[in-house]
Amino acid sequence: MNRPARLNRTLLATLGVLLLLAGAYPVAVYYDLLAPPWPTLVPGTAPPPTWVYWVTTAVAVVVALLALRWLFAQLAHRPKTHTWRLEHDPDHGRTELAPSTATAPFTAELLTYPGVHNAHTTLAGDPDHPALALAVTVEQDADLADLRTHLADHGLPRLRQALDLTDLPVTIEFRFTSTTGARVR
User: Fold this and answer.
1) pTM listed for this prediction
2) Which of 42, 44, 84, 159 has the highest local Cβ count within 10 Å?
């Protein structure tokens, strides 16, 4: 179940239906299929009050910011994963490694680090060109520098060794949870 994709499809379908109806209404009025509820669109020729401009501007800014947030959310996605085939001689069999299987112990270890609330790891590419994407949800008071150091010194070298890789490019995205950890008094 991909909740963001389902939400995107629902919002886009709703927006599409609304825009279709908004476009069909004037066409129907023009061809006398519907009678307009009022004889003119704007009563009189005087400009509207100043507050109408401010409200229109505020609504436009909010809609624009929501649209930008949605657009940036589309750009932040996980890289595609493929099953790794680790074979030197196909005649003697083949070994396949699912990316989730390869990163499960690393993710479990990452969850034990201080301040880490949740973690998602994605191993992409192939053994010749691997890439690791981390999305780590941390508590508000977590020490990110300490966490990065712990990852670089302990977690990532062990993962590279387990996968028999000399180089593993890593992208880390830190997200903050709304809860804080226990404070020492």
Assistant:
1) 0.52
2) 159
